């Protein structure tokens, strides 16, 4: 797992042909806006969250975010335990995101 600054996350994501964006916030948070092309799986779903992660392609590079960076950090650590090699946490999360947003 790697914590990436907003700038590192954006530039690495832009040049990564094997990338998927994962939003681990609640549905209510997602409804306030989200990063385009992201997959949403709420980390608060517990076992369901793990079950949904298990369905994902572990060979992809995952760029994970939440509101502030805490839950996404936990999600990245969990993903590493489940066998995902590349999970990148967005430091500062969505509330500091300067890039494109879908509202």
UniProtKB/TrEMBL annotation:
Keywords: Transferase
Highest taxon of the lineage: Bacteria
UniProt cross-references to Pfam families, sorted A to Z: Rhodanese (PF00581)
This protein's record includes keyword Glycosyltransferase: no
Domain Rhodanese: 15-102
CDD domains according to UniProt: RHOD
InterPro entries hit by this protein: GlpE_sulfurtransferase (IPR050229), Rhodanese-like_dom (IPR001763), Rhodanese-like_dom_sf (IPR036873)
Keyword Transferase recorded: yes
Single Gene Ontology MF annotation: transferase activity
PANTHER family hit by this protein: FAD-DEPENDENT OXIDOREDUCTASE, PYRIDINE NUCLEOTIDE-DISULPHIDE OXIDOREDUCTASE
Protein name, per record: Rhodanese-related sulfurtransferase
Species name: Arenibacter nanhaiticus
Native organism taxonomy: Bacteria, Pseudomonadati, Bacteroidota, Flavobacteriia, Flavobacteriales
